[in-house]
């Protein structure tokens, strides 16, 4: 039986369709969950996709974090279910308090749309087959991707091994070039680059499949325990 | 009860928007050595008195209007009703 993956959709989401398609390409069963829906449709994994939820009003991700669907994501995450936030989805997860830190406007105030190289920091269930020092090529496209945590939190993140990927060349001013982090439990991850846009060598890279496979593997592992 | 919540970047936090405005002001010849950009929210709350308004607005500001990691806020009651 294939893994069911919920892809949230907020007013203003724009990468939900690519995420749904990528999940299908990975052999899993995608299900679209509207922001007003307080349930995840029996999904074993969740993707919070990119876009401009609620027009990025207030702060990117701030209003989406208060939606009924995010209430269901909180419960899913608290039960150990895997959650991947991509771009705006990363912003939503930080605003929801499911991931530490916050995404701020790029330090140079310019939009960035380019392929970036990401350095693997350690082995992780999110990065099957990868070891520290490996690189992934995945595109970014954002204006508010400057990751910020206080110096104290940064030490905690590093000590707990919550930093999974760093930019080889920092495109947005993120503190210590951090590109991808997890929560303390490890089942919630967020990044500004778009794995769902890098699933076919025809488009330059299929390295995004590695993170998506990590999401599916964890969903299977959680279901096996349950 | 009308309440104004002012949200601004915390001291020491890089504020690229304020910095861009500062550079433009300097380009116009103004001696602006620092600019910080924030947000103002005017709320109309259906509460009994100014004390309650301050309390509720403070909760709203903390929970929704600001991100305490990077922002701080002030709450001010704009008008009080005599009891």
SSE topology:
The complex is a heterodimer of chains A (226) and B (83).
Chain A: E1 4-9, H1 16-25, E2 29-34, E3 45-48, H2 68-78, E4 83-86, H3 88-95, E5 102-104, E6 112-120, E7 135-142, E8 146-148, H4 151-159, E9 163-167, E10 178-182, E11 188-191, H5 208-225
Parallel strand pairs in A: 1-2, 1-3, 3-4, 4-11
Antiparallel strand pairs in A: 5-8, 6-7, 6-9, 9-10, 10-11
Chain B: E1 2-9, H1 16-27, E2 39-44, H2 50-65, E3 71-77
Antiparallel strand pairs in B: 1-2, 1-3
User: How large a portion of the residues of chain B is in β-strands, by DSSP E?
Assistant: 25-35%
Shape-level CATH architecture of chain A = 3-Layer(aba) Sandwich
Which homologous superfamily in CATH is the superfamily of chain B?
Phosphoribosylformylglycinamidine synthase subunit PurS
Looking at the structure, what is the overall shape of chain B? Answer: elongated
Helix content of chain B: 25-40%
**What percent of the residues of chain A sit in helical stretches (DSSP H or I)?**
10-25%
Rounded Rg of chain B:
16 Å
Reported by name, the CATH topology of chain A is Rossmann fold
Name of the CATH class of chain A: Alpha Beta
SSE series of chain B: EHEHE
Listing every helix as H and every strand as E from the N terminus to the C terminus, the arrangement of chain A reads EHEEHEHEEEEHEEEH
* Structural class label of chain A: alpha/beta
Overall form of chain A: globular
Count the strands of chain A?
11
């Amino acid at each position: 039986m294939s893994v069911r993956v919920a892809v949230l959709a907020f007013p203003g989401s724009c990468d939900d369709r690519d995420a749904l398609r990528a999940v299908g390409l990975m052999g899993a069963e995608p299900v679209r969950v509207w922001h007003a829906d307080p349930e995840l449709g029996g999904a074993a994994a969740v993707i919070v996709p990119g876009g401009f939820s609620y027009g990025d009003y207030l702060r990117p991700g701030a209003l989406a974090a208060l939606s009924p669907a995010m209430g269901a994501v909180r419960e899913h995450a608290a039960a150990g279910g895997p959650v991947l936030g991509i771009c705006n989805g990363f912003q939503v997860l930080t605003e929801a308090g499911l991931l530490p830190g916050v995404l701020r406007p790029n330090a140079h105030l310019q939009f960035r749309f380019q392929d970036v190289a990401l350095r693997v920091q350690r082995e992780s269930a999110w990065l099957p087959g990868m070891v520290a020092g490996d690189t992934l090529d995945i595109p970014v496209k954002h204006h508010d991707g400057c990751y910020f945590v206080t110096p104290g939190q940064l030490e905690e993140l590093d000590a707990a091994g919550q930093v999974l990927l760093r930019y080889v060349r920092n495109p947005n001013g993120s503190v210590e070039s951090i590109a991808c982090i997890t929560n303390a439990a490890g089942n919630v991850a967020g990044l500004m680059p778009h794995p769902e846009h890098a699933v076919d060598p025809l488009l330059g890279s299929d390295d995004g499949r590695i993170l998506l496979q990590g999401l599916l593997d964890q969903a299977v592992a959680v279901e096996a325990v349950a | 009860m009308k309440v104004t919540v002012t949200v601004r970047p915390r001291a020491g936090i890089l504020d690229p928007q304020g910095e861009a405005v500062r550079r433009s002001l300097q380009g116009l010849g103004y001696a602006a050595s620092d600019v910080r950009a924030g947000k103002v929210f005017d709320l109309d709350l259906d509460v009994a008195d100014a004390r309650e308004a301050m309390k509720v607005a403070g909760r709203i500001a903390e929970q929704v209007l600001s991100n305490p990691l990077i922002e701080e806020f002030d709450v001010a009651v704009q008008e009080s009703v005599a009891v």
